[in-house]
Design a protein that fits this description.
Length: about 475
Amino acid sequence: MDMTDTAATTIPCEESATGDLKRVLGLKSLIAVGVGLVVSQGIMALMLQGVGTAGIGFIIPLTIAFILALTYVTSFAELSLMFPKAGGFSKYTEIAIGHFPALLGTYSGYVVVAMFALPTELLLVDLLIGSVYPDLFPPMLLGGGVLILFTLLNIVGVDVFAKAQTFLAFTMIVALTLLGLAALTGSSAGAIETKAIWAEWNPTGFGVFALVTLAIWGFVGAEFICPMAEECKAPEKNIPRSMFFSVTIIFAVFVVYCMGALYYVPAAELIDNPLPHLKYAVAVFGDFGLLFIAVAGLTAVCSTVNTTLAAVPRMLYGMAQNGQALPVFSRVHRRFNTPWIAILFMALLVGIPMTLMSGADISQMLISAALCWLLAYLIAHVNVVVLRRRYPRLSRPFKSPFYPWPQLIGSVGILYALFHASPSAEMTLVIYGNAGAVLSLVAIASYFWVKFVMKKKLFSPSPVEKESQ
């Protein structure tokens, strides 16, 4: 398996006679990557908890989150096509604003996010299967087993689920859409009267707008398409299009999925239940809903875990080669040619928090992860503005439309979401405590690494080899 600092290692690509990767990934394959990274049990549960909190009013934060997603898509598309062979986010940021923000953004936006998000995914699948088939597995066995299985598969390079990424992504999108449509168009004794659904409509309530951070978690990840520039057909067209299509499809599916839940599940049960999607599926499909959601949840978790364990360790590998991470992360397995130490490191980083969590921690951990990821998106917007000013003549196969408005709107929206992340006063201390503690450690480590190991200035940008004329 090739050692690249991208998620593209999870996508099987043909190789030419010279060893270069062929451009075989079309628009559909790229959309599957963008959509597939979002498809997870955590998102399925979090969206329902959001609609349970705000009712039909959840459409407002969902729409705002969609608009913010469109802004980050324009920034990442421009950056990725400016440096199509670079090392990803850390490289864009290193050239724009220096090594310290490059390390801080990459670790917070990807390594820390995996540490927060993957344990919740594994815990959710453990809870889900335990609810559907009680006493089938001891606590933590299934979640821990999934983590160990895909750690080993990534070390040996047998990416079984990665090869089926397109199938899994579109299957999950179809499943969520069918569930939502069945709820919106069906009728049963369990359906809630439409009047009751609209009774709590409050389009100007602050609480509704405060859910933007929760909603935007359902749109993060489309930028994982960007590192595939060397393996896709017509990247200057397909990379921006696939990201725009991905977030648009996700928005449409979530609207149907979330609104349908209000017709069958009382709001209080969506908020308080750690598995609201299980309650939803059973309310709509009856006993068949148990099997439906068990299969859907298990495949979603396997896909998410496998993709993350393939992508993030390779980011660490690429950073180690650039002197931005511990040199040990650049070691590859002699037989399988995979970054096995980086993979094991990420598995431990995921496994330890999982053993300390409970079902009550799921929403808190996912929102904490969203905070960290939003910081990376804010840096991406800054990168675009800085590079436009510093290198106005540098070749840009894709230019963010209406510049600088997407970057300004995106930055303001992200700052608002960062300061209003908690959906309730009870969760505020935990959410900001989780994110703040980890980000502080990352910032301190990044400072010492850049200053004393790399011996570089914190905010001194690296030069571009040649500016296009």
